[in-house]
């Protein structure tokens, strides 16, 4: 059916074009022979083709353009009186005898153009006559194109200031009156088009009307080009008349398009000075008009105008632009009860953008916008629309982008309230945006109060929200979120130790509520933040009596113990052990022996009771040995107790090679270079001999289990330890012992049961090369190594 309609329309258009071409041919003949009567006859017949009602606006436009081109030629003929011998006044009367009204009015407009050019009558009189006469055609499409033709031929003949057709002082008003009258009539015809034909083709009619809207809008463009329309006239006459027509037409398509036209074609300074009038029309528009887009475009234009020059900013303050826009938006949202949430929030986003660009220094304005948005969101049970959610995120992101400083945003009391309206997922997205802003701008949040507000904003990342299941999250996303929070904790800093301690306590309060899944990410950052404070306070005594206990290392170590103990609910014994050892090192640097001892005790308790996996045990014991070796605070008794524990656990590891490596590592606990008096050569030798026994046992076990003794790597590693202590001057490590060990390794490698291993061979070769190198070096060390025979 649709296809047949389209085919019929093509056929009717072809017939219309053929009719125009046919009559235009005879019209041209008449023009060439200067025959006025025949020219008028055929031009009227040609224009009769425009009387059709069968074509859509798109097709009618094609037909109209054919006729328009021919009318240009006819106008040239009318201009030259020598060709047809009739005065323009008589010609103006003559064309009014055409039989049908539509051709008559097209001819009248064409002659009217020549009449004005001739200046035989005032332009305003001719224009007034033409605009009134055109009322004779009330068919929407035919009438619109006729009035469009009138606008086209008259636009360069308006009695404007500086125009050749300028008359007395009132003529600008006449030009404005003509354009406004033509605009009003065209708008009426355009709106009437909506109500033609059956209701079932409403969508098709709307599409057709959209195609015709520029014909109406051109009038407003012409108005904006009239030189004589100054701010006064625009304010008193032009804008009120246009708005009266816009409001009274009660058509949503026309209202939306014309409001947009007003905003786009007239100057920005006019909008600023007539803001109240323009905004006053908004609540009177139909509820279905997309007013949010109209107002958003107005605010965008005003924002750009404000950005164009600092000189215009006082104007904005003078006319109280923010207050007027804010009030108008409130009225529009109130008037349009059915406006969806996304519409209202979009308006607030535009208002906030305007505020940040025009009044960036007025945080109270920014907070006011957020407060109004919060009030609107409070009336909505749940923000389910994804587009509305995106707009809320845009609203919250705007201050961050503008100020590049979260500290400024933290001063906005309504910011957290708006954020609370987001669903859990989007709340997290927004929290990530805030953290990224802090990282990007390297912002420093330096007071506990600000940290409190910040962590309230980030609560979606820090703890489980109502109705959210932390175990349903995507693992990668969760890791990224928690690592961001951990990085953020390092950005919180204050030079004052008391305030820094308050910050740490505030962070602790929030992060401890994070649950077992989050603690492994946040506890290390918090612990290291506290340790950084300890390093700054190194050397201060903690036993100060008074109400207000200042930040002291002892107090912070107590806090650290509580922080690390929270990992027991995870459980994460390996992480807790590492943190206890870090704290022990810090306590060592602060010269707090008992505190350091307590941390080691906690580490050993974890090792005994919580760490069962053999690989984890190996890592843990090496960490304990390494940390203990660096400790200088312990007295003889405490050090012996801890060293004894470490060597005992080393010898009880599951696998023999692991036992061997841990035991020879313990040798370093008895020989510390930079500590006076801690050089116990005998116990070093005992450890190394014990390691050798374990290595031997490992070889024998391998022999029994596999029939081959396995690689000799352990022996070579022990040889390297011997060489280390030999160099350091341990009197118990002799060249003879090293010589015997080298012989033992060579014997093992040459035995029948030995497994060939290139790595062990290379390791031994490198070790022997090192001995050779030390021999050749000369000096004291050279002499020392000389006694080792290779």
Automatic annotation (TrEMBL):
InterPro entries: ARM-type_fold, Vps35, Vps35_C
Pfam families listed in its UniProt record: Vps35
Annotated compartments: Cytoplasm; Endosome membrane; Golgi apparatus, trans-Golgi network membrane; Prevacuolar compartment membrane
Protein transport listed as a keyword: yes
Membrane topology, from the record: Peripheral membrane protein
Any single biological process term in GO: retrograde transport, endosome to Golgi
Regions that span the bilayer: none
Keywords assigned: Cytoplasm, Endosome, Golgi apparatus, Membrane, Protein transport, Transport
SUPFAM superfamilies registered for this protein in UniProt: ARM repeat
Domain of life: Eukaryota
GO CC, any one term: cytosol
Membership in a protein family: Belongs to the VPS35 family.
Record's function text: Plays a role in vesicular protein sorting.
Name of the protein described by the UniProt record: Vacuolar protein sorting-associated protein 35
Source species: Corchorus capsularis
């Amino acid at each position: 059916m649709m296809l047949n309609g389209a085919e019929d329309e093509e056929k009717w258009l072809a017939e219309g074009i053929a009719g125009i071409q046919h009559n235009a041919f005879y019209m041209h003949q008449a023009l060439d022979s200067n025959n006025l009567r025949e020219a008028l006859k055929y031009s009227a017949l040609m224009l009769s083709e425009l009387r059709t009602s069968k074509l859509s606006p798109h097709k009618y436009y094609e037909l109209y353009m054919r006729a328009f081109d021919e009318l240009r030629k006819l106008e040239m003929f009318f201009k030259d009186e020598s060709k047809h011998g009739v005065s323009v006044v008589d010609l103006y009367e003559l064309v009014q005898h055409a039989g049908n009204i539509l051709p008559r009015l097209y001819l009248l407009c064409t002659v009217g153009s020549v009449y004005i050019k001739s200046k035989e009558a005032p332009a305003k009189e001719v224009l007034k006559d033409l605009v009134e006469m055109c009322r004779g055609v009330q068919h929407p499409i035919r009438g619109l194109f006729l009035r469009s033709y009138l606008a086209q031929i008259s636009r360069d003949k308006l009695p404007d200031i500086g125009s050749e057709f300028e008359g007395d002082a009132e003529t600008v008003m006449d030009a404005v009156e003509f354009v406004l009258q033509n605009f009003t009539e065209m708008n009426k015809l355009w709106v009437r088009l909506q109500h033609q034909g059956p209701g079932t083709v409403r969508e098709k009619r709307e599409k057709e009307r959209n195609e015709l809207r520029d014909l109406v809008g051109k009038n407003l463009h012409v108005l904006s080009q009239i030189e004589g329309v100054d701010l006064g006239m625009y304010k008193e006459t032009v804008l009120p008349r246009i708005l009266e027509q816009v409001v009274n037409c009660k058509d949503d398509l026309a209202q939306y398009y014309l409001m947009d036209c007003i905003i786009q074609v007239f100057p920005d300074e006019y909008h600023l000075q007539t803001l109240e009038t323009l905004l006053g029309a908004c609540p009177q528009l139909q509820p279905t008009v997309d007013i949010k887009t109209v107002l958003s475009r107005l605010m965008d234009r005003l924002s750009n105008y404000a950005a164009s020059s600092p000189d215009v900013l006082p104007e904005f303050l003078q006319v109280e632009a923010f207050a007027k826009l804010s009030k108008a938006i409130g009225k529009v949202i109130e008037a349009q009860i059915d406006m969806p949430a996304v519409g209202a929030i979009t308006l607030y986003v535009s208002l906030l953008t305007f505020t940040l660009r025009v009044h960036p220094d007025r945080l109270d304005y920014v907070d006011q916008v957020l407060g109004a948005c919060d009030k609107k969101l409070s009336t909505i049970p749940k923000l389910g629309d994804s587009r509305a959610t995106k707009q809320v995120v845009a609203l919250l992101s705007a201050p961050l982008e503008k100020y590049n400083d979260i500290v400024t945003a933290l001063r906005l009391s309504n910011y957290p309230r708006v954020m609370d309206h987001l669903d859990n997922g989007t709340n997290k997205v927004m929290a990530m945006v805030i953290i990224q802003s802090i990282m990007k701008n390297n912002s420093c949040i330096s007071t506990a109060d600000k940290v409190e507000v910040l962590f309230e904003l980030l609560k979606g990342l820090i703890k489980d929200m109502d109705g959210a299941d932390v175990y349903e999250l995507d693992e990668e996303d969760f890791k990224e979120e928690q690592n961001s929070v951990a990085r953020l904790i390092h950005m919180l800093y204050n030079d004052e130790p008391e305030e820094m301690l308050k910050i740490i306590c505030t962070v602790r309060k929030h992060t401890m509520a994070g649950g077992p899944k989050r603690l492994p990410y946040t506890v290390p950052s918090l612990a290291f933040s506290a340790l950084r404070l300890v390093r700054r306070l190194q050397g201060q005594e903690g036993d100060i009596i008074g109400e207000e206990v200042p930040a002291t290392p002892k107090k912070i170590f107590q806090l650290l113990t509580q922080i690390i103990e929270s990992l027991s609910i995870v459980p994460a014994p390996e992480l807790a052990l590492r943190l206890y050892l870090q704290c022990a090192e810090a306590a060592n640097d602060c010269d707090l022996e008992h505190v350091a001892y307590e941390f080691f005790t906690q580490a050993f308790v974890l090792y005994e009771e919580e760490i069962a996996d053999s690989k984890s045990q190996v890592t843990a014991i090496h960490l304990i040995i390494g940390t203990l070796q660096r400790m200088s605070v312990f007295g003889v008794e405490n050090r012996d107790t801890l060293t004894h524990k470490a060597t005992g656990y080393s010898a009880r590891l599951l696998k023999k090679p692991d036992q061997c490596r841990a035991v020879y590592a313990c040798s370093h606990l008895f020989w510390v270079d930079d500590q006076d008096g801690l050089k116990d050569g005998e116990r070093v030798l005992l450890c190394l001999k014990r390691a050798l026994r374990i290595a031997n046992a490992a070889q024998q076990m391998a022999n029994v289990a596999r029939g081959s003794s396995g690689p000799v790597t352990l022996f070579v590693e022990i040889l390297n330890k011997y060489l280390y202590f030999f160099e350091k001057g341990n009197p118990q490590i002799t060249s003879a012992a090293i010589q015997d060990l080298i012989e033992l390794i060579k014997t093992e490698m040459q035995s029948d049961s030995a497994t060939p291993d290139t790595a062990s061979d290379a390791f031994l070769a490198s070790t022997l090369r090192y001995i050779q190198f030390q021999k050749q070096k000369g000096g004291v060390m050279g002499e020392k190594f000389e006694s080792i025979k290779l």
